Each structure stands twice: as C-alpha cells, then as structure tokens.
C-alpha cells in the first residue's frame, strides 16, 4: 500500500513538472527579445509624413506609433499589424515639425522604442522675383523670372488687361522660369504677375511687369511738297510713330484712283518722286505700316510739276526805326527764283518795291516818312509764275523813344531778381527786357507796357551770373539800350540780400559760443561776457551779419565800424567813443563800461552801444541770460 502511495506521489510530481515546463516554454516563446525597430521618415506633402522601419521579429502582434511636436509630449496616434513596414501620417499642419518613435508589441509586452525621427511638413513656397518682359510682338509676350523656392509644385501665371482685374491664364511646372503668352491682342497694354504654389498653398506674388504689345503705327502728319520741278516732286512729312516698319507713298493722277508708288524705311521723312510728267496734276498721301497693319493716311497734298512755288508764310516785322523797317518770312518752297516785296499805304494799291534772291527770308525797307502807315506783303516767284501772297503786316513809322536809364538789379529770392529803371520817354509802347549769361548772346525774355519801370525775373539758377539790358519801343522803332547790369545768385549774395529785405534777428547767451542768426545755428570763437552789468562780445559776428565792416588799428588800439553812412570808433579801455566824428560816452549811466581785450587778443565791445548806433534793437532777458538783437527790414 505504501508502495502504491509512493508511485502515485511520484507520478503527480513528474506530471506537475512536465506541465510547468510546457507552460514556461510557451511564456518564454511570447517574450520579445529582438532589437528595437529602425525608423526612418520623409515628408510627402504639407499635411503628410511617411514612416518606414525595419524589424527582425516573428512574434509581434503589431506596432505602436507615437508622435509629438517640438517641445510637446509623445502620444500614441495609431497601431498597425504585424509585419507592417510603413505608415503614412496625414491631416498634419503645414510647415510644422513632428517627432516620431515606434515599438513592437504582443500580448505579453512592448519592445524597446525605436530611434526618434524628426520631419517637417511642407510649407508655402517662397515668392518668385525679378519678373520681366524679355520680348514682345503683336502676337506674343515672353516672361522670365527668378525661382526662389525649392519646394514648389509649379507656378501660376496671372494677367490683366489695362483697366481690368487679374485672371489666372496658365500654370507651369516646378523649376520653370519662363513663359510665353500667345493669347494677346496687338496694341493692348497687359500687366503680369506670378506666384509659386504647392500643397501648402500659394506664395506671395512676384513684382508686376507691364507691356504694351505692338499695334498699328500712328499716322504721319504735315505732308508737304518741299520742291517741285518739271520731272520730280519732293515730299516731306512728320513721323508720329515709334513702331513703324516704314512708310508707303501713294499717288493719284487727276481723275484716277490712288496707287502705291513706293515705300521707304522706318524714320524716313522725305521722298522724291521722279516718275511724273510736267503739267499733270498729282495728289499724294502717305501712311506708316508695320507687322500689325497700316496707320491712317496723312493729309493730302496736290502739286502740278513745273508750276509756281509754294507761298511764303509768317510775314512779320522784326525791327523798325523812325525811317526803316525790317521784315522776315518763312520760305516754304524749294523751287522759287526769289521773293517779291510789295508795299502800300492805307487806301492805296500795292506796288512792288524790291525783290530778293531764293532762300533769302528778310528785307529792310528804308526811307519811310515819319508818322505814315505802311502795309507789306511778300510772294515767291519762278519761271512758272508767282506764288500766293503772305499775310499782311502794318507799320506806323514815327519818332523813336528815348532809351531808359539807371537800370538796377537786386535779389528778390534764391531764384528771382528785381529789375528797376528810369523811363526817359513819353512815347514808348513798352519796354523789351533782354538777358544773357556769361559767354552767351542776349535774348529777349519779356516785354512790359508803357510807363512800367520794374520787372521780376523768376526761375533763375543758383551760382549763375545773369546780365540784363532793356530798351523802349514804339511806333517809330526801338530806342538804344540801357546800361547793362549783372548779378550772381550765389548762396552768400542771396543770404546778404534777403537779410536786408527781411530783417535780422540774432540770439546770444552769456557764456555760450553758439548763437542763432535768423534761426540758423552758428558758432563764434569767444562767448559773450558781462562786466559792470553790461554785455560785451566779439562784435564782428554782429556787424558782418548786418553787412557792415570792422577795422582794427593796432597802433591806436582802436576798432572802427563802417555801416552805411555811419562810422563808429571805439578805443580799448576808453569809455568814450566817436559816432561820425562826434565824441560820446559809451554808457552815460556807467562810466566804467569800455571795450576790453581778452587773451589771446579777442576784442570785446559793448553790445548795446554798437548795435543801437547801427539802428538795431537790443532786448535782455536777465533770467535766461539771453540777448536778442533785432535789425528791422529796410
């Protein structure tokens, strides 16, 4: 019985050990003992990051994925099944840095964490720069820009027409830096801008670039016949365009239609037609052209080759005196033999008084009778006959006015001067003002009416010397010139002149070397001082501001101030001074007030005595120790 009990016990022990061994083997089999996963990450968009890993294990249930942002804490964002090797994290914020780690797990435990990986989602691209129009025609515009981004998906091109709003017209891929716009109209103004884009959004815009595409050229104007012979006609016109390829010349013979007879290059403004016959009537017109099309036509001109010359124009009187007049006109022909000058008196008939050669445009008629009225006209002539007449001009001969005198010039401002003179005549119509700069000739700048004796000349340049003269004029002609006067608008001259007309205010402080003259900060070498309750200072700073002068006699130890009609003399350490030779006490109420010399030789004069004798006002502020000197405007 005992033996059976022993056998039973042994069998129980063996069975228990076997069960434990089997169970422990299963437990050991569930323990994760491989190395941690090796993790990598890459950005795929502005909202997504892809994870990849490697892991050597066969008993994981799956993987736990954890994430945090910089400065934050990890949190599990997902789980994936066993044998999975990648994971895409979506719904992220653009331009944000994320940190990841993973670990394997099963029913028993989790593995050690993988390495950490850091990745930043894609942000908006940088804006392109330097957008330019590299070329344009009437059918296309070429753009170029600088790509400043390395993460764009591409570029959006926007355009607007003058007066409109921007509209996106196209997109190009990443790294593109040029674009050709072919959907345009000729002669239209366009503005362009671009921006980069990716999944995070659009960049800021580039600069704006504008262009006006080539359109039809403007029509030429002022078509004229500048010469005509029996076998040629020369035309001239004004080019009003900057984009023409050339000009087309059209002609018609009387009773026929226009035909193009030739074309000339861009910027050409003359053409000689040598395919004509004398006596025929020809009409011409011209228009510009380019790749876009043709301009409107110019005006028409009619010519009969071998006919009379074109009439002169703009007849005028350029000078006259008591018994002579000088005429001038504009020559509008190249085929004249000369010009005929005709004259009459009111109520009479025209008489030819002379002729001048071709290309002459002036004539002087002498021997006129004082007080008489004369009327003139001129016409060109050649072998074919006479041109039409010019306009008429009328002259009343008479006594010449006397010349003005005493012309003076003064500065009115930094850019203006005032002229004044004496009117010595009682029969002038007015005065002619003439001006020149050094090295130039006189030119008329203005006229003023009778009895006027002043003129303000504005718009002048600094540091330039101007010279003026004037003359009177009337029905009998022009007087001799006045005297000439000159003036230079230097900064120094302007300042001195304006100080006379606007007055002077100077502010000094006892013990301070800085002072103000008409609100301009200045510095003197010795500060004002107070002796015997009177202010003394280097007087030169005052007298120079008032355009006076000061002289020093070392032998007599005397300072002499010259101001307008006054002479003020002061002696060092002497309480008596002289004003225009008359002796006077410097300060009757304090005989101790006198000029002194401060080392190393600065002469200090009594302020109030000097300035009041020069006509200035002196104010003293005992609280602030300020001296205010006011010299009133003249």
From TrEMBL:
CDD domains: FN3. SMART domains: FN3. InterPro entries: Cu_amine_oxidase-like_N (IPR012854), FN3_dom (IPR003961), FN3_sf (IPR036116), Ig-like_fold (IPR013783), Mao_N_sf (IPR036582), Striated_Muscle_Regulatory (IPR050964). Keywords: Repeat. PANTHER family: NEURONAL IGCAM-RELATED, TITIN. This is Fibronectin type III domain-containing protein.
């Amino acid at each position: 019985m005992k033996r059976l009990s022993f056998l039973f016990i042994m069998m129980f022990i063996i069975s228990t050990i076997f069960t434990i061994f089997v169970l422990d083997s299963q437990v050991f089999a569930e323990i994760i003992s491989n190395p941690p996963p090796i993790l990598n990450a890459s950005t795929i968009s502005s909202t997504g990051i892809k994870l990849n890993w490697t892991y050597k294990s066969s008993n994981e249930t799956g993987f736990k994925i954890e994430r945090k942002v910089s400065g934050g804490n990890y949190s599990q964002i997902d789980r994936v099944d066993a044998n999975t090797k990648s994971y895409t994290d979506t719904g992220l914020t653009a331009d944000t840095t994320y940190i990841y780690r993973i670990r394997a797990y099963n029913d028993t435990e989790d593995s050690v964490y993988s390495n950490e990986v850091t990745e930043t989602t894609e942000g908006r691209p940088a804006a392109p720069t330097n957008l330019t129009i590299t070329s344009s025609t009437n059918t296309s515009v070429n753009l170029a820009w600088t790509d400043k981004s390395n993460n764009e998906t591409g570029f959006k091109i926007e355009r607007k027409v003058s007066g409109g709003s921007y509209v996106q017209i196209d997109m190009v891929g990443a790294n593109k830096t040029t674009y050709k716009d072919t959907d345009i109209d000729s002669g239209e103004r366009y503005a362009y801008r671009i921006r980069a884009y990716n999944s995070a959004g659009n960049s800021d815009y580039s600069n704006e670039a504008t262009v006006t595409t080539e359109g039809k050229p403007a029509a030429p104007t002022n078509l004229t016949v500048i010469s005509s012979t029996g076998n040629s006609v020369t035309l001239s016109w004004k080019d009003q365009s900057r984009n023409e390829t050339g000009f087309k010349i059209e002609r018609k013979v009387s009773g026929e239609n226009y035909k193009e007879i030739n074309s000339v290059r861009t910027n050409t403004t003359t053409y000689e037609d040598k395919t004509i016959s004398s006596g025929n009537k020809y009409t011409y017109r011209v228009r510009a052209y380019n790749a876009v099309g043709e301009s409107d036509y110019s005006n028409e001109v009619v010519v009969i080759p071998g006919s009379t010359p074109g009439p002169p124009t703009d007849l005028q009187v350029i000078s006259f005196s008591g018994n002579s007049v000088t005429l001038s006109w504009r020559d509008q022909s190249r085929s004249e033999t000369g010009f005929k000058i005709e004259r009459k008196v009111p109520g009479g008939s025209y008489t030819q008084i002379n002729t001048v050669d071709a290309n002459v445009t002036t004539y002087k008629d002498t021997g006129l009778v004082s007080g008489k009225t004369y009327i003139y006209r001129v016409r060109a002539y050649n072998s074919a006959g006479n041109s039409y007449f010019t306009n008429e001009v009328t002259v009343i001969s008479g006594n010449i006015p006397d010349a003005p005198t005493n012309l003076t010039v003064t500065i009115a401002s930094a850019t203006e001067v005032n002229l004044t003179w004496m009117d010595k005549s009682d029969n002038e119509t007015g005065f002619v003002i003439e001006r020149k700069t050094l090295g130039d000739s006189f030119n008329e700048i203005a006229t003023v009416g009778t009895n006027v004796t002043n003129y303000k000349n504005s718009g002048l340049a600094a540091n330039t010397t101007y010279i003026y003269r004037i003359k009177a004029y009337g029905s009998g002609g022009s007087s001799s010139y006045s005297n000439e006067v000159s003036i230079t608008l230097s900064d120094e001259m302007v300042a001195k002149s304006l100080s006379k007309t606007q007055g002077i205010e100077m502010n000094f402080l006892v013990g301070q070397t800085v002072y103000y003259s008409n609100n301009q900060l200045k510095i003197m070498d010795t500060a004002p001082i107070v002796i015997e309750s009177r202010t003394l200072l280097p007087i030169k700073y005052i007298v120079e501001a008032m355009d006076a002068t000061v002289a020093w006699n070392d032998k007599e130890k005397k300072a002499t101030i010259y101001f307008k009609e006054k002479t003020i003399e002061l002696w060092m350490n002497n309480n008596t001074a002289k004003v225009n030779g008359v002796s006077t006490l410097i300060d009757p109420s304090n005989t101790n007030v006198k000029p002194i010399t401060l080392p190393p030789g600065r002469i200090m004069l009594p302020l109030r005595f000097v300035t009041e004798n020069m006509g200035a006002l002196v104010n003293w502020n005992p609280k602030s120790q300020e001296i205010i000197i006011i010299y009133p405007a003249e």
